[in-house]
Design a protein that fits this description.
The chain is α/β, with parallel strands linked by helices and 241 residues long. It has helices at 4-16, 22-31, 71-78, 92-95, 98-108, 122-128, 153-158, 160-163, 224-239; strands at residues 35-42, 45-51, 57-61, 82-85, 88-91, 115-120, 139-145, 167-171, 193-199, 204-209. 33% of the residues lie in helices and 24% in strands. An eight-stranded mixed β-sheet has the order 1-2-3-6-7-8-9-10, sandwiched between helices. Strands 4-5 form a two-stranded antiparallel sheet. The two termini are 14 Å apart.
């Protein structure tokens, strides 16, 4: 059974991860009830560490910051050269720089603490890479929103146990989550049932295996605000039951 309240909170964290100003970022995570730890930024990565009142640590990874003019993020989306990572194959763009990000995380978070990870778009695909950098025993909840196809089946097979409980969400006919569109090297999604959102008005969704999601060309469906609104509507409806 889906924990829609947890999914909605993860969606809000993934959305807030885009904020580049530290003061605004701290305020956004504080509004979710989190203690903001720090903001990691470089040319093609942005992520926030936060801790809940219950002591749960969260890493929220930003997606492509195209509207902020971060061309290195766009280049990461476009770099489809296959590279080896932790027993599998991923794109160069999704994996480059992730070791440095995780070094920062592991230097900041106490050694025994589990870490939950969420992200949207490029940040969602980077969420899928978590088992390459974090021991399985320390992996908390994983939430992926609108992930493009940057990870091959061999990586998902190698880390199937660590990724088995990951929550993956796709919206409508999201054009950017369908990327890469025609490259036969990049056609795989996690071999899990995905939440496929259809409408915020009547809270319509269905469960579909990732590789069976039809994709599409509706680029407005990639908007994280829309993902969040549709998830919030389902969470509100489920709380009323």
């Amino acid at each position: 059974m889906m924990d829609w309240q947890a999914i909605a909170l993860a969606a809000r964290r993934a959305n807030a991860a885009y904020l580049e100003d530290k003061t605004a970022s701290r305020a956004a995570f504080s509004s979710l009830g989190d203690d903001w730890i720090d903001l990691y930024q470089d040319a093609s990565h942005q992520a926030v560490l936060s801790v809940t009142a219950a002591g749960e640590t969260h890493l929220s990874i930003s997606g492509t910051r195209a509207s902020e003019g971060k061309l290195a993020d766009v280049w990461a989306d476009a770099r489809l050269i296959p590279v080896s990572l932790a027993g599998g194959t991923v794109t160069a763009g999704v994996s480059d720089g992730m070791q440095a990000l995780w070094d920062w995380v592991l230097q900041t978070v106490p050694g025994a603490n589990p870490i939950s990870v969420c992200g949207h778009s490029l940040g969602a695909s980077r969420t899928h890479l978590t088992p390459a950098f974090l021991p399985a025993a320390r992996i908390g909840a994983l939430h992926s929103f609108a992930a493009p196809k940057f990870v091959a089946a061999d990586f998902y097979h190698a880390h199937g146990d660590a990724l088995a409980s990951m929550v993956c969400v796709l919206n409508g006919r999201d054009g950017w989550a369908s990327w890469p569109w025609f490259d036969p090297r990049w056609k795989d999604r996690p071999p899990l049932e995905h939440i496929w959102l259809h409408s915020s008005d009547v809270c319509v969704f269905e469960m579909v295996l990732g590789d069976l999601w039809p994709g599409g060309w509706v680029f407005a469906d990639h908007d994280m605000d829309l993902y969040q609104a549709r998830i919030d509507s389902i969470a509100h409806a489920s709380a009323a039951l």
